[in-house]
Amino acid sequence: MKKTSLPIGMHDKLFKRARVTYQIERTISDLLIEKGFNRIETPTLEHFEVFGDEVSSSHYNLFDKKGALLSLRPDITSQIGRVIASTQVETPIKFSYSGKVFNYHEEMRGLINEHTQAGVEIVGFPVEEAMPEAIFSAKEALDKAKVPSYRFEFSHAAVLQTIFAGLGLSGEDKKRLAIDIVDKNITKLKEFTKAHPSDFDDLIQRLPYLFGESSQVLSEARQLTRNEAILAALDEVEDLIEQVKPNLSLANLDLAQFPSMPYYTGVMFKVFGDKVPDAFVSGGRYDKLFERFGAKELTAVGWAVDIDSVYQAIHDSLRQGGAS
Q1: Which domains does the chain have, with CATH numbers?
Q2: Beta-carbon-side half-sphere exposure of residue 259 (alpha carbons within 13 Å)
Q3: Is the N or the C terminus of the chain less surrounded, counting Cβ atoms within 10 Å?
């Protein structure tokens, strides 16, 4: 009998869902092109080194006929880094894209392993111009797609990167600490600081609480550390929030936010809705990505919107309103 079941994490989209998700992708893509972002399309398959120096168990990997290890792309930003480093593309430049990305999640977690994304990359522009443009274009994309409600949450990659670098943990200890921070496990974090005392103890223990209205979070965080790198990061994210806040309906700060991609180096942001567990949008600054491909360091800011999450938010809104 021929196999009719789908691989773990893969799903068919039928009829209304297929039509609406296509319309969302097209609507956002057309908006970005109209705003002057150069459309780019990258291959679904790449050499695995494009996405990291080591083989990742969360990527879909396969060998070609010559034995080279390839990966189904887990993100598109890394591919754009490869494009800039390997072609004659001149910077500064703004890209927009859409397409499928693949990330493997463990069985029985009910997560989707294939997602449709659309997004932008703003490369080589001054960060004080690029970051607000990224945030406002993400907001405009969600509004154009008619997402009913959402909130921006900001953070800075340097906060947790500085803590982890200063602790000098082994691989296993680092992994456990990361899990406890993501889970906001107050008890485990206190136990960690007792086992690994450092100048970051107060900050680590309070990470689960450093979430919410930006001015309150920043005020408490500054009282918990004297580390210059972290204080500079707090200043940077505060300046940005003050700049963009008048144009956002709601903007919070979460200092326990981990980078959604390892190449983020500066201010990061995610966009959440009340009814959807996953972020609509993930974005941030990633100046160091291009050096991985032998190119010079470039200021870069980008974001990606998850089309499937946007569909879910719109679908739930229509259903609650009585539409079919």
Answers
A1: 12-150+275-324 (3.30.930.10), 153-272 (3.30.930.10)
A2: 17
A3: N
